[in-house]
């Protein structure tokens, strides 16, 4: 490479004239605020404060590739969804705390500003008071009174709380719906599992403990008890015949009876 080559030798691409006066952003991404509209200016200021607070308090580090892969490959179960719901609830409480602390600090600062904006030493004896100062303080007190009243209907706290609550409830309802779906599928799988009757001693011993106990109870029950269990678990007599015959002809010590009983 030629040592005389410098960056200054590279021709710079001229800016697109369509962005002139728009701070580099397309008009579609910049909301033009009328500088004479006090309401619009206050609204823009509130939005800027919200954006700055979100940047300060909601920043999250970018997860590593391993963490992202683990999240994508994880198997969703009712347990993991309940954990997600708990995390969401904790996050929402923390967001509310940040929101309330911010507005409380802002209100306290406003009250301090109002307090120091008034100098009681200018109130002299009757007849010596400056009427212009008195009128100014009356306007200041009127402004303060209107500000106090606007806290109920005009504070950005209400809008921010509503947005925060809506986002939280939307995510919570989604997780609760997923939890219900998973629990239904899990219950259906358990019903299918419960409806299966082992066909041999070896199959019985490989079954979950609750299945072993259920089958052992069936084998040890009388005719009436067995018929009741057939209806309860959806078994058919043909399903039970193989194991019942094996049980009757060759009672194996490997069969698992109910606690406190023996085969």
From TrEMBL:
The lineage of its organism: Eukaryota, Fungi, Dikarya, Basidiomycota, Agaricomycotina. The keyword Coiled coil applies. The keyword Coiled coil applies. It comes from Coprinellus micaceus (Glistening ink-cap mushroom). It comes from the Eukaryota. This is Uncharacterized protein. Keywords: Coiled coil. Residues 165-192 form a coiled coil.
């Amino acid at each position: 490479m030629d040592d005389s080559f410098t960056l200054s030798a590279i021709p710079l691409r001229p800016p697109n004239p369509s962005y002139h006066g728009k701070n580099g952003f397309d008009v579609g991404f910049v909301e033009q605020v009328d500088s004479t509209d006090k309401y619009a200016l206050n609204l823009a200021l509130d939005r800027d404060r919200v954006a700055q607070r979100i940047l300060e308090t909601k920043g999250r580090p970018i997860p590593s590739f391993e963490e992202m892969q683990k999240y994508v490959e994880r198997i969703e179960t009712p347990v993991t969804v309940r954990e997600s719901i708990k995390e969401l609830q904790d996050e929402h409480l923390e967001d509310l705390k940040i929101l309330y602390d911010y507005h409380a600090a802002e209100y306290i600062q406003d009250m301090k500003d109002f307090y120091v904006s008034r100098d009681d030493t200018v109130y002299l004896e009757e007849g010596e008071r400056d009427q212009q100062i008195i009128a100014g303080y009356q306007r200041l007190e009127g402004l303060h009174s209107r500000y106090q009243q606007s806290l109920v209907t005009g504070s950005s706290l209400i809008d921010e709380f509503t947005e925060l609550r809506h986002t939280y409830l939307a995510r919570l309802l989604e997780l609760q719906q997923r939890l219900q779906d998973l629990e239904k599928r899990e219950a259906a799988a358990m019903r299918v599992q419960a409806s299966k009757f082992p066909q041999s001693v070896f199959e019985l011993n490989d079954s979950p403990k609750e299945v072993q106990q259920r089958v052992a109870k069936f084998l040890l029950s009388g005719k009436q008890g067995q018929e009741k269990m057939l209806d309860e678990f959806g078994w058919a007599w043909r399903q039970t015949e193989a194991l019942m015959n094996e049980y009757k002809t060759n009672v194996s010590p490997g069969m698992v009876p109910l606690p406190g009983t023996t085969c």
